[in-house]
Amino acid sequence: MRIVTDPGSQSWYEASARQRIAALVDAGTFEEFLGPAERAMSPHLPLFDLPRAFDDGIVVGRGKLDGRPVLVAAQEGRFMGGAFGEIHGAKLVGLLRAAIASKPAAVLILFDTGGVRLQEANAGETAIAETMRAIVDARAAGIPVIGLIGGRAGCYGGGGLIAGTCSRLAVSESGRISVSGPEVIETNKGAEEFDSRDRALVWRTMGGKHRRLTGAADAYCADTVAAFREAAITLVGTAPAFDLATLEAEQARLEARVKRFGDCRDATEIWARLGVNDPDAVPAMTDAAFAKTASSVTEASHDAR
Amino acid sequence: MTDWRSEKMARDARIEAGRVHAQGKVVRGDAVVDLLEAVLKPGDRICLEGDNQKQADCLARGLAACDPTKIHDLHMVQSGIVLPEHLDVFETGIAKRLDYSYSGPQGGRIAKMLYGGQIELGAVHTYLELFARYFVDLTPNVALIAGVSADRDGNLYTGPNTEDTPTVVEATAFKNGVVIAQVNEIVERVPRVDIPGDRIDFVVEADTPFYVEPLFTRDPAAMTETQILIAMMAIKGIYAEYGVRRLNHGIGFGTAAIELLLPTYAEKLGLKGKIATHWALNPHPTLIPAIESGWVKQVHCFGSEVGMDRYIRERSDVFFTGGDGSLRSNRAFCQTAGLYACDMFIGATLQIDLAGHSSTVTQNRVAGFGGAPNMGSDPHGRRHPSDAWMKAGHEAEIVGDPALMRGRKLVVQLVETFGDKLVPTFVEKLDALELAKKTGLQLAPVMIYGDDVTHIVTEEGIANLLLCRNADEREQAIRGVAGYTEVGRGRDRAMVQHLRERGVIRRPEDLGIEPLDADRSLLAAKSIKDLVHWSGGLYEPPARFRNW
Amino acid sequence: METLHFRHSTQKAASGSKPMAITGVVASGNLEVLLERVLPPDACEVAIETPVGGYGDVWEAVVADFVARTQPGGLRISINDGGARPDTVSLRLAQGARLMEASA
User: Fold this and answer.
1) Is A36 within 8 Å of chain C by CB?
2) What is the ipTM of this complex?
């Protein structure tokens, strides 16, 4: 018996960066830049006696999405938590800069990162800043930058900052978006403020459902590569223009959000104020039921960014 | 004149002393220590209910808080050493001697105390064996047990985790012992009477609900390709081959993977209804997809599992339930069922030697036995045939008259050749032997003896030990599936090849299995949440297994 | 880090014509295997970087079995190891060889 599975039905959460790309773009269209055979590996990790990866934990290249040319970057969340190192960051920055020259229909960033790699922190921090600058430049040049978030490492630290500069974000239930991670918050503010081992609290506060309901993410996907592909196609088509009106709308949206929810002690209170009937039921909801709930929340969809 | 009723009179005196701290049978939670100091006597044999899952924790804390000048040198007989208090009493001198069965969570500490001589050890038993001794030479003077609720007459509702309670009470109450039960609440009327009130002498209202250990929850998210490959080989090479319908599974990830492959891989092989229909098993959450897909006809349980209660209530065609709707488990009966009415036991172990002896003892952990040696042994008292049992019997070496041939229980060890941190599973010599020497045990703590094992399954293949005709073949069959461990690399390649030609060793390709197909996409559920969805929201996993 | 090199002669060339493939991820208990069709068809080289020292003989046995079974002639195989067990190494090598079987 030969077992055949449809690549699109793969779990996004469980797939590797390469598997995600292969099933995300049109079949057979992906062309990698600076692939593993080039051996562009971290010059820093050997100093710490740590193993390197041939691609330094990020796959970059070009392909087609629904027939249109796109540039794609995918972080591998299992290699050092998908963290940004010097080479890793440079590959992403280079890709974004290449977008301005090659004018693809979009740049897709498949986030899966805990933030900056501790062993090469200065280079990593620089890469975060350069990436945000490059995204802004690409968007200003009329190229939408779409973030897809649903991996093991979530999208934390500098990754959370970069996500904030994207044109549109799609997220699955497993995906978490935040700057400070649960452990960082607990270390600084104490377990009474945020118990990092309370997994339900972590997901309520940073997880995909919450980010979708508050409009931080623009699409919610089931945990399959096919669902992320659908979302990416839709989001490329609905990305807002990058102009003063959009930025002012985003500023107004965020100010209103602080005003409206600033005194909430838990995500469920926010969901209740957003008009969700049974907030306590949200975390256990199936993807289909949640998608329905999210579609009835008006704040979840907007033209800001 | 001989007094034939001295035990009875002693019992009456204990009860009278205890009544001072009770209203009728009911004792307040804060009076536990007073009650125990009144009822217990130095040197008593005490059965403190520490089961596989349910713990009489309020009574355990009470016992540990007793004054060691009043209560000392107790002989503890209990199936599970699970809570810290179970060992604290040996440090303070309240207890001295111990006969037990399982010590999973306290395995490290109990090893230290055994080495240090703080515990005078009787023996480490299997469950059935310890239960049997409650009725012969380890009968308790006092039993300290746990239930969900009781009425003022002492009628006891144990809840889904009945486990050992009926056995302990039977041995104590009918042999002049005193039975003290802790309950979560006193009620007007219990939902169902698991233990009649005339067997219960005192009922303590506990300060907090008793603790239950979620022992049988395996998160599908943690299952590896290697475990899936091993599970595929077991299904095709053993379940299907022998037509195993009646069985017991261990608690490891390998068997959990099998449970999750039934509705997918085994279904594609056309095995539905032909294998794995009747079980002696705790209610494993990973069995939910198989149950929901109509694979499972019946399950009898040793105990329950945290979060499974609502699901079981709604699936009474499959599980044993009481008039109140909740699960009725019973460890003694289920162990007996596993021993006599199942054709196969399949489970994991930590070490296997060249003769096939296995043990879960390592140098610094004594986990005890629990029930595996009962399940994992060939019951010589069995007299009913079944196809699986007879086929295994035919494969074993027959000496003498074939008309007098009997069947064999399939006892299958499912292991990866290396454990955590590259520790080899296959060894020349079991750590258990070293432990026995260091602690002066007469009997080395072997989990399953080699002569009971019929198959060993690893990622490299299946060794069918039934087909081995001498000790040499047996050793090479084991080496032949031991992978890249030292034992595996020490194989006689020619002999292993010969054994493979005879079907004693079968590789994945011999079974028509492509190792590269062993993929997580074959699992019917990939996460705990998938299991919840399969159950229609009836399974309520404990917090540590949730991210919602 | 420990570096290991093995060189084998093979009876035949690896099947397929794909020039390069990669499988696996460098993570705890896992590894990545990069295969490149760059050597003469009767040679196979395997280079390993591993953070777990002292298992040279096990690596040697795993690689030798893989070469005997698969006959990966012409392939240079490079491994970044994250502390994988031998069975995982065998599985990734087999996965890599299967990926190379495709046509270019």
Assistant:
1) yes
2) 0.96
